[in-house]
Design goal:
This protein is mainly α and 193 residues long. The chain has one domain: Rhopdopsin 7-helix transmembrane proteins (Up-down Bundle). The protein has helices at 2-27, 34-63, 70-103, 108-111, 114-140, 157-163, 169-192, and strands spanning 68-69, 149-150. The protein has a two-stranded antiparallel sheet. The radius of gyration is 19 Å and the shape is flat. The mean pLDDT is 87. It comes from Heterocephalus glaber (Naked mole rat). Its main location: membrane. Pfam families: 7tm_1 (PF00001). It is a multi-pass membrane protein. One of its GO terms (molecular function) is olfactory receptor activity.
């Protein structure tokens, strides 16, 4: 019980902090700059990312039931991948934005126009949704041996792959390609900036 109260308290602090950040940036006209535009989306992603698994975790802690249906698992995994990948790509965009602001300050308004920032952010969200769709759809076509209940409260790719009766090598390659392309793109851009 103490653990669930502590977990709930940490979650509420996360929600209030990120929601407060979004609210402050939206209400203060002086903060309507590109840096705060990216910061607003980072707060939104952090808020969403923590909300993917927290409700099920709290339910598991309070009821001692550590199981989830396949549909719930795939839904949780889908949004976990979306927001995890989106955070990586958004940090990549923020690094590029800071690089341009520091290294080319006179060209910053021309290079980092609001239209370009909106396009880059939209592209990163689209990439994340496509990436997550590819992973989840490729995993959902696998055949599973046992019941449709998974004895976990948090779903990731590895537990699902271990429950499959069919060959998972192609799906593992697909997951590896999607994850590594996202991570390498982020790592190269952040390191370059």
């Amino acid at each position: 019980m103490v653990l669930s109260v502590l977990f709930l308290l940490i979650y509420l602090i996360t929600v209030l902090g990120n929601a407060g950040m979004i609210l402050i940036i939206c209400l203060d006209a002086q903060l309507h700059t590109l840096m705060y535009f990216f910061l607003t989306h980072l707060s939104f992603i952090d808020l969403s990312y923590s909300s993917v698994f927290t409700p099920k975790t709290l339910q598991s802690l309070l009821t001692s039931t550590k199981s989830i249906s396949f549909l719930g698992c795939f839904t949780q995994m889908y949004f976990f991948i979306v927001f995890g990948a989106a955070e990586c790509l958004l940090l990549c965009l923020m690094a590029y934005d800071h690089y341009i602001a520091i290294c080319r300050p006179l060209h910053y308004p021309v290079i980092m126009s609001p239209g370009l920032c909106h396009a880059l952010l939209t592209d990163s969200y689209v990439i994340c949704f496509v990436d997550s769709t590819v992973v989840v759809v490729s995993m959902s076509i696998l055949h599973f041996c046992n019941s449709n209940i998974i004895q976990l409260f948090f779903c990731d790719t590895l537990p699902i792959l271990t429950l499959s009766c069919s060959d998972t090598s192609e799906v593992e390659i697909m997951i590896f390609i999607c994850a590594e392309s996202n991570l390498l793109l982020s790592l190269i851009t952040i390191s370059g900036s």
